[in-house]
Amino acid sequence: MTVYLRSLETAVPPTVLIQSEARDVFAAQPGLSRLGSRLVNTCFDSAAIDTRYTAVGELTTGSRAENPQFFDPATGLLLSPSTKVRNDIFATEATKLFIDAAEKAVDACPGLDRGDITHLVTVSCTGFFNPGPDYKIVRALGLNPAVQRYHLGFMGCYAAFPALRAAKSFCDADPDAVVLVVCAELCSLHVRTSNDPDTIMGSALFADGAAAAVISARELQDQPALLTLDHFETVLTPVGEEAMAWNIGDEGFEMVLGTYVPHIIDDHIIGALEPLLSRDASLIGIPYRDIRHWAIHPGGRSILDKVQARLELSDEQLVPARETLRNYGNMSSATVLFVIRHILDLPAAGASEEPGGTVDDGGERICSMAFGPGLTVETALFTKITAPQAPGPDARQERPGLTRAETALA
After folding, report:
1. What's the pLDDT tens digit per position in 343-399?
2. Of 43, 109, 125, 157, which residue is the catalytic one?
3. What CATH class is the domain 227-384?
4. Yes or no: is domain 4-223+399-408 CATH 3.40.47.10?
5. Which of 24, 55, 210, 392 has the most CB atoms in a 10 Å sphere around its CB?
6. Pairwise CA distance, residues 76 & 165, whole Å
7. Rounded to an integer, what is the distance from CA 226 to the centroid of its chain?
């Protein structure tokens, strides 16, 4: 049975972070050591990020909160709110992003009645509340209250793939199933000033965003599919358990992102891809660059550099991942869906003689991967459907009136 992704939409909060301005604020904090200050400048400047988004409106340069909790513009100091304060903001602001992305994904399926949705899978690792985002989406979108709801929490940057894999399993088991998958992350809630290299790296990389998809095996009237969900695999690398982690502290969640992570990925990426590519006989033994599209989770610039070099991919094949990182930063689980959205928006390629670049019906192959705590490597094969698509609303213009004048500090 073929399972289709019918829509894929994204959403970001309204406040823009300019990377250079965020760097200057973090580098100016009085508690930094000389080494810490150098690390701030190095991490922010080498991140290959221009802009990010945050749901913490208080961080804007023009904010004048009576009792600031994250940033005091009068003194230029970054503050350290408790985990409870941060999580309370998550409950409010993440709900907005979950609902925004979900509504866009459903509205992008004109042949879909909201009552047709049978399953809802929500994903986040940056906060908790209950009734949770699954409940909020059901109420806000007017879904059938009997819809089956599942929440994947605290898995990290790779969690979009378990969500998509679950959606495929639901559709394989029930041809009438229609699954809504929504990932939303507010990573910026957990930034803080510190001399710790992992904390500095997290502050330089992470951002907020959401993405949602509608998945089904059944035909939807007047709704051509975007891609097929072909295969998924999970691999745990033999080392790396201590190199990447996500823990709960008294002043927010604490990221462990060791500098050795890119080297672990470099050493084990070939082995992690083997079980996935063996699922398709046409892909066994071909050069990796002969697979047309690569949707790689941009965990950081150095990770992308290692993957590109090890797999001998072209600069063009890394554009979707690098542009997502440059414009949005690392939004944890939602990020790889932004990369896939970028690939879907590319014009269809011309005829190719590359063995893995196209499939018999003219679709274009996508190999995708994401990395997370463990060290976990999630991989997936998709096929981008290149038949002409019916025109639809441009729901991917995140915030049409947003300008860089609405800047923030971090």
Report:
1. 999 998 764 445 566 665 569 999 999 999 989 999 999 999 986 444 433 334 443
2. 157
3. alpha beta
4. yes
5. 210
6. 45
7. 18
